[in-house]
């Protein structure tokens, strides 16, 4: 019999030893992880943390700091120890935290997160509900501060809005660790987040589902392009959506060619990875209710083709399927929230590579709209896919159409990462999404859909329309003007998300460096707002 000592032989070595000596597992004394030898009660305490809040109004001379109601209640339970210790430190401002240990037998550590001033509210100039944003930031700061202790469970107070607290905490603790081994020191299992001292379980659940949707979009964006090709994306869609009764249809290049999707076929044939059009249908209302159409650009790697992108930009091009990732996540969230709407997602998935079959400068293509299209720039491929999808979407007599995609790099210069660009032919749709984005903190900014830009893309030597203008600047608006011609008379909104797809982790305290999954929560909130106003 092979004897193994718990304290010196790791589980990995134990498995290796078994195979080395070719012993049946039953002949070995099983390895018991050291933590199981400890008192389970003590373990539970060590694995549990609590996040509370404190307001700090620097314009008030006397008593500028005050704990939240839940904070005060907890402070009473621990005989005022929390407040007396907090006073010894500089009071945390918005986004800062202080962590205290062993205040009571229930929690090993308590994080007090700063909420800033108690007096903030909806800020019209900022187009932002600053109360909710402060709650997201505080919940994120508290949960992230405790995450380093590897807790199994973190209780988070609502700070007055359970939904926003759940969003902030769930977005902040998420990490992309799929491809790290378990032995890797950087892997910290995600803690279980629970609502503390508040009965708004529904709000907490909605916030959690919205954040999980955004985290799903982030996950898909982060996946390496050699793994997440169109076929893998379709498989993931089948795996995670079919169990929620969402119908997933996967259509091939031949099917697309039969429907004269000239742009999709032209871009798709540039790669050895077969292009696929993934179509998702969620029925939350009766089958006769007109659907909302959501189109997502799904380029799993955008090399720029013959107009090859710079090495600096190519690093982020695995995320050029952000639109498709967002739409998939939105539809999954709609099903989990049981929203009473019908949604059809159209996701043209392909890879754009430079090779002998790549679209070339000056190529001419057609789509089912019977317009001839000049490919003035092969690297402006996303708009070709969306144009085909817009024409196809008309078959479903949609209530309205939203398309989402990373289209134009120059948005980084206009807006930074503050808001994605919104182009729409419907004032009503814009009012709803503007309001929704003020609530989520993931804002949109309306851009011009003027004839000025339409004239640019229609100024074309050999075709009816070109995929970009001759002018170098204004490409995001040129793209919208191009797409408008394929949306016809449908109520339509185009979200150009190039500038919000990736963050260095400095703009939003609840989003760490990496892919962002934006604007998933805003579109889910848009559906909520429209349902609440009986517009859907
Ligand atoms: Zn692209």
Beta-strand percent range:
15-25%
Overall number of domains: 3
Unreliable stretches: 1-38
**What gap, in angstroms, lies between the N and C termini?**
69 Å
CATH top level label of the largest domain? Alpha Beta
Helicity range: 25-40%
Hetero groups: zinc ion
Short précis:
By secondary structure, the protein is an alpha/beta fold.
Describe the fold and architecture.
The protein is of the alpha/beta class and 536 residues long. It has 18 helices and 22 strands. The longest helix has 22 residues, at 201-222. It binds zinc ion (ZN). Zinc ion is lined by residues 299, 302, 320, 381-382, 406.
Features:
single chain; 536 residues; alpha/beta; Leucine Aminopeptidase, subunit E, domain 1; Aminopeptidase; 3 domains; nine-stranded mixed beta sheet; six-stranded mixed beta sheet; binds zinc ion
């Amino acid at each position: 019999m092979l004897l193994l000592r718990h304290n010196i032989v790791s589980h990995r070595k134990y498995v290796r030893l078994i195979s080395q000596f070719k012993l049946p597992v039953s002949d070995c004394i099983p390895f018991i992880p050291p933590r199981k030898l400890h008192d389970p009660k003590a373990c539970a305490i060590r694995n549990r943390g609590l996040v509370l809040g404190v307001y700090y109004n620097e314009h008030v001379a006397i008593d500028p700091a005050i704990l939240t109601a839940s904070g005060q209640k907890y402070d009473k339970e621990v005989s005022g120890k929390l407040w007396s210790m907090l006073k010894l430190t500089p009071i945390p401002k918005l986004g800062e935290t202080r962590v205290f240990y062993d205040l009571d037998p229930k929690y090993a550590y308590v994080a007090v997160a700063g909420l800033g001033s108690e007096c903030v509210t909806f800020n019209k100039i900022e187009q932002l509900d600053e109360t909710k944003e402060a709650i997201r930031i505080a919940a994120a700061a508290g949960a992230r501060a405790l995450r380093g202790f590897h807790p199994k469970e973190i209780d988070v107070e609502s700070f007055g809005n359970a939904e926003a607290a759940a969003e902030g905490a769930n977005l902040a603790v998420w990490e992309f660790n799929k491809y790290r081994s378990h032995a890797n020191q950087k892997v910290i299992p995600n803690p279980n987040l629970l609502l503390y001292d508040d009965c708004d379980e529904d709000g907490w659940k909605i916030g959690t589902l919205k954040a999980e949707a955004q985290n799903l979009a982030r996950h898909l964006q982060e996946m390496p392009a050699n793994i997440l090709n169109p076929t893998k994306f379709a498989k993931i869609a089948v795996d995670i959506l079919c169990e929620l009764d969402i119908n997933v249809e996967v259509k091939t290049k031949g099917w697309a060619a039969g429907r004269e999707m000239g742009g999709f076929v032209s871009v798709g044939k540039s790669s050895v990875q077969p292009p696929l059009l993934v179509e998702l249908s969620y029925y939350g209302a009766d089958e006769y209710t007109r659907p909302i159409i959501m189109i997502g650009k799904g380029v799993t790697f955008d090399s720029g083709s013959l107009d090859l992108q710079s090495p600096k930009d190519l690093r982020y091009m695995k995320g050029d399927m952000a639109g498709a990732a967002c739409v998939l996540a939105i539809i999954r969230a709609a099903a989990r929230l049981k929203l009473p709407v019908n949604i059809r997602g159209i996701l043209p998935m392909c890879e754009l590579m430079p090779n002998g079959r790549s679209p070339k400068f000056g190529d001419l293509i057609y789509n089912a709209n019977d317009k001839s299209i000049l490919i003035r720039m092969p690297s402006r491929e996303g708009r070709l896919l969306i144009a085909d999808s817009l024409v196809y979407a008309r078959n479903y007599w949609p209530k309205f159409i939203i398309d989402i995609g990373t289209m134009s790099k120059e948005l980084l210069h206009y807006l930074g990462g503050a808001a994605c660009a919104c182009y729409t032919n419907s004032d009503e749709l814009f009012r709803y999404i503007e309001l929704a984005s003020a609530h989520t903190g993931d804002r949109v900014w309306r851009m011009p859909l003027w004839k000025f830009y339409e004239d640019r893309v229609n100024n074309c030597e050999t075709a009816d329309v070109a995929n970009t203008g001759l002018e170098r600047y204004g490409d995001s608006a040129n793209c919208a003007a191009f797409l408008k011609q394929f949306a016809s008379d449908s109520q339509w909104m185009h979200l150009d998300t190039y500038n919000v797809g990736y963050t260095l982790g400095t703009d939003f305290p609840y989003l760490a460096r990496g892919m962002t999954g934006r604007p998933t929560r805003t579109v889910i909130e848009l559906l909520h707002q429209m349902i609440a106003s009986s517009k859907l």
